[in-house]
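Handout, section B. The chain below has 313 residues.
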Amino acid sequence: MESSPSNVSHQTLYLNGFGSLLHYRPLLFAPLCLVFVYSLVANSALILVITKQHTLHAPMYILILAISALGIAVPVMFVPRTLVSFLSNINLISREECLVQMFCIHYCACFQSTILLGMAIDRYVAICLPLRYNDYINVTHSLIFNAVFVIRNTVVIIVMVGLIIPLKFCKSNTMYHCFCEHTSVVSLACGNVSRNYIAGIVAFCIPTTDCIFVVYSYVLIFMAILKSPSGDSRQKAIDTCSTHIVVICVAYLSAMTAFIGYRVNAVPPDFRVFISLMYLLVPGCFNPVIYGYRTKEIRVHLLKCFTCNKIDL
C-alpha cells in the first residue's frame, strides 16, 4: 500500500500476515482452523466439567475455569477474520475495529498473567500455610485481589491504546500481521511515537512483574515441600505444582519469544507473525491437555463425561 502525505491519515488498515506466502495462504487455513476448533472444544469441555461438578467449585478450579475462558476468548477475537483472509484475501480492517481488537487481545493477555499469579498465591497458601488457608483465601480477599488487578490491567491497557487514537497513520496502512498488535500499529504512525513505545513496554512489565512473583512463590513452595516428610501428601503437592509450572513456562516463554521477535530486526516478518500467533494460541491449546491429564480430579470427571456421555452430578 502507498504512503500518504503527513496531513492525511489512513482510516482503514491492511492486515498482511504471511504476506510473502501470498499464493500459499489458503494452505494455512486448515491447520489454523483445526487449532481454533480444538481450542474452543477443549476449553469448553474443561469449563463444562468445572461448572457442573460442585466438588470442583474451589478457588484453584475457578482459576482454571477462568484461564480456560481466556483460551476461548482470545482466538475468537482474531482467528475467524484471519481464516477469512486466508481464503478470500479480504484483509482490510477499520481503524476503530483495529483499536478495539488490540484492546481486547492485550487486555486478555494481561489477565492470563494475573490468573497465573493467583494460582501461585493459592498454592503458596495451601502448601506453606495450610492451617491459615481459609483465613487468607476467602471471598473478601478474592474481591480485593480481583479489584486491584482489574484496575491495574484496565488503566495500563486503556492508556496504551488511548495514546494511539490521536496518531496519524500516514506512513503506510499495511501491517505484516494477522491481528492488530500494538508495536505493528504504532510503526505505521507519523510523528513522535516514543510515548507509545514506552506505554508498550509498561504493558509488557505487567506479565514480567507477575512472573517474578510467580517464580518467587514457587521457590518458597518447593523449599517447603522439600522440608516436609515424604508421603502421599508431599507427592500430591509436587504433582500439583509441577502441573502449574508447565502451564507457566508455556505462557511466559511464548510471551517472551514474541516480545523479543519484534525487537530483533534480523527476524523475518513471517516468523514474527508465526511466533505472535503461537503466543496467543499455544497456551489455550496446551492448558486443557495439561490440566485435564495432570489434575486427577478433573481427569476423573472428564473420563466420566466421555465414557458415559453425561456428567455425573
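Note. The two ends are 58 Å apart (CA to CA). Compare this with the example in section A.
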